[in-house]
Design a protein that fits this description.
The chain is built from eleven helices and eleven strands. It has 279 residues and is α/β, with parallel strands linked by helices. The longest helix is centred in the middle third of the chain and has 19 residues, at 93-111.
Length: 279
């Protein structure tokens, strides 16, 4: 069973806790660290000979075209993480359409390849943003990965399907949803698909969870992380302790944990894995 490795390419200050700690007007004056941290990720993936899907923020692609070209040149899939990293529920349908079409066109220009995957910043497509799927389908996206079916204070949709499914169809074209990975015990979905949970929880939690889904349910797992999670030297502005915990916990151990994960679990880009499953 092959799982999906995905990387949400954004700056450390795009993290929600950082957004709360540093006013929007001050964020552009923070030092950019995305290119160096993406290079660390690329180096790690080369060492392990693994290809991934990179959901890239359009604005960062415009500012760092060489970074995007290195991602593509190394055989990874390029996908879209919005242009401004604005939460979907803060946008009108027209604002969302403008944001994703702008980012998609830019990423396609830079890579010379079609961009067919989308992930909403902070998984921000909820039940009331259902229109977003129509817009993605209209604009040539083939899959979305914005659902994390767990209980979470900010983004969980625990009642949603856990495995790839068709979320929209129009004539011959369809949009698939590939939710972030969960393992189900005693009727509850537990997070095994990455993010802060991967840094916080013991490594075995994720490894066993993925093996269980692959083995018992015969389904692939969508796993994600951010390049800034491999960057313990990023600025640390004052923030409430629980925000500090979420953003900074175990950053210094992330890289070795990822090495460990790539050693024992098979991964590929989302496009490749979606070709092998029939929702
Ligand atoms: Zn993001």
């Amino acid at each position: 069973m092959i799982n999906v490795l995905s990387v949400d390419v954004e700056e450390y200050y795009h993290g929600r806790e950082f957004e709360a700690a540093v006013p929007e007007a001050q964020r552009p004056s923070l030092p950019s660290r995305v290119e160096a941290s993406v290079d660390r990720v690329l180096e790690l993936l080369t060492q392990r000979d693994v290809r991934a899907t990179f959901f890239v923020v359009g604005r960062l692609a415009a500012d760092h075209p060489g970074m995007v070209q290195r991602i593509v040149a190394q055989g990874h899939e390029l996908a879209c993480h919005g242009h401004e990293h604005e939460l979907v529920f803060r946008q009108s349908p027209q604002e969302f359409r403008d944001d994703v079409t702008r980012a998609k066109a830019l990423l396609e220009d830079l890579s010379g390849e079609p961009v067919v995957g989308y992930r909403a910043p902070n998984f921000s497509i909820g039940a009331e943003q259902d229109w977003a799927y129509d817009i993605l389908l209209e604009n040539g996206f083939l899959y979305d990965s914005s659902s994390y079916p767990i209980l979470h204070d900010r983004y969980g949709t625990p009642g949603d399907p856990r495995f790839p499914y068709e979320v929209r169809r129009s004539g011959e074209s369809r949009l698939l949803e590939f939710p972030v990975g969960t393992a189900r015990f005693a009727g509850i979905n537990f997070p095994i698909g990455g993010g802060g949970y991967f840094r916080l929880l013991p490594f075995e939690w994720t490894r066993r969870g993925i093996m269980r889904v692959n083995g018992r349910e015969r389904q692939p797992v969508m796993f994600y992380f951010h390049p800034w999670e491999l960057d313990p030297d990023q600025p640390r502005p004052p923030m409430p302790w629980h925000h500090r915990m979420r953003h900074f916990v175990n950053l210094e151990r992330m890289e070795s944990k990822l090495h460990q994960l790539l050693q024992c679990i098979r991964f590929a880009p989302a496009r490749h894995v979606l070709d092998t499953v029939t929702p």
